[in-house]
User: Which sequence fits this backbone?
């Protein structure tokens, strides 16, 4: 399993816009072949901070996500809303195993 955890900090005035754009990306992403999870999380302590938890069956499935129309639209839409550049960290999922 290929997991990417993306850390995002959004400008305060763009929180609601970011949430809506991310909802649309989430809804399309969970329909992708090879997708196990696509969670959008908001910090309770600092509402401008978000985490996207993306789990795909294979590295190839995760890479295909970055070529989808919904991801490309999300990336373009939210680019100017970031307070800092987003940071994605790739992990190999060990458990649960398939």
Assistant:
């Amino acid at each position: 399993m290929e997991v990417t955890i993306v850390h995002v900090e959004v400008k305060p005035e763009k929180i609601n816009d970011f949430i809506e754009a991310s909802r649309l990306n989430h809804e399309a992403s969970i329909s992708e072949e090879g997708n196990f999870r696509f969670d959008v999380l908001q910090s309770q302590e600092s509402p401008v901070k978000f985490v996207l938890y993306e789990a795909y069956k294979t590295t190839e499935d995760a890479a295909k996500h970055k070529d989808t129309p919904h991801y490309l639209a999300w990336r373009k839409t939210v680019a100017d809303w970031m307070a800092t550049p987003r940071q994605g960290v790739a992990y190999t999922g060990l458990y649960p195993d398939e």
Observations:
- The beta strands are 2-10, 35-42, 49-56, 82-92.
